[in-house]
Amino acid sequence: MDAKQAIAKIYEMLGLEFSKENTEPVKEEFATTELEDGTRITNDKEGEFELGDKIYVVAEDGTLSPAPAGEHVLRDGFVVVVDEEGTLIEIRVPQSEDVADVVEDNEETEEEMTEEKTELNFEEELGKIKSSIEEMLKLMASQNEEFKAEMSEVKKEVETFKSAPQMKGITEKQPITQSFADMRLEMLKKHIK
Question: 90 lies in which domain range?
């Protein structure tokens, strides 16, 4: 197991994910819904409708225009209130007895979720995390030993290089034994042949 696999295992144990580059183009999905009369509206951004969103009317050809001010009833009974600039300022829930049932159901599911969380065996999870960390530390220790061995080899090579005989430097002056005119003449003779 290498370091990346050990870290990935720890992330998996903790319920986290590595961020992966997505090479495929991401298709943005905007929140859209329909009014009672069938007119489609959108907030032109990812996610659900939220207060403060700009609301747009979607034409048949896909063009967007700001929603008119006022109250607009959606097909599901919700009412959205839009101001003069097309900003969503209020969302009203439809009045119904079913709403009370939905609220009670949500309360029950929250209680169930709390019970599920308490049922987790923290000692078991902690043991898994500890073993993953131990594996990672062992891997790092072995890689540290490899690194030390490589560094000692590099030190030996540097010492060998330092003790090798030195060559004359470029900056030393060397006497010119040939005149420039003679050198040009020899070069021309080589090219003429």
Answer: 30-97
